[in-house]
Here is the input.
Amino acid sequence: MADRPIALVLTAPGINCDDELCEAFDLAGAEPRSIHINRLAADPDQLDQASLIGLPGGFSYGDAVAAGRIAAQLIRVHLWDALRRAVERGVPMIAPCNGFQIAVQAGLLPGPAAGTGWPSSPASSEVALVDNESARFIDRWVRVSYPDNTVCIWTQGIDSTPEASMLPIAHGEGRFMSGGRLQELEQTGQIAVRYAADDDPNGSEGHVAGICDASGLILGLMPHPERYTRWTQHPFWTRLEDGQRVGNPPGLQIFEKAVAWVRSRQSATLSA
Here is the structure.
């Protein structure tokens, strides 16, 4: 459909969640288009067509050196200007799991302070995602919540019951370290997703599962919302009563909120 906003999903060697991310965008009403990072590096202006951008999960470049490090460096060298333009024109971005690790090391998160422009060159990483406290890869579902004060357009007002408010995780380097900025991120509403205090899988500081930039447009999170777009994907879906399944699953709601935000902005532009 012509009115479906374009969602550009970056792929790279080792990325393995691009299909799920494309499907989530499609179910939410966007038109997903996957593109290899090398093609973008050769022609970064292709990002100008995007109304939404996704950095998928997986093990980009085999997580050589560190999880997401090589893909992040490619972004810093070849795609920074194009991504900065995208943010400045109001393009929402989502980066689950390995995408979160990439976004942090690329300088996209936590981003500049509110009211401050994006730098012409990528900043050094201010927060980090390090080895899980268990020193093991963890693959399971966890209970999460979405802070009421978050500025994140992807997670504001997620409508979910406690029984349904879960997301799947699969990572070995997912422990969030704020670099002394946890209180600041909380005060600015940049905490977008939190693990339940008694279900934190990796020992993240402040039980942080995901953060956004100060504008609320860029979301990075270790869980995989793109793997929770149907109720039958919930690990205990047969035990959920009708009243515990409110609307669409929280994973799909995250994408629907971003697509709705883009459409609302496009409508406002047309009517201006």
Notes: The mean pLDDT is 95. The chain has one domain: 6-271. The two ends are 23 Å apart (CA to CA). Residues 6-271 form a domain with the Rossmann fold fold (CATH 3.40.50.880).
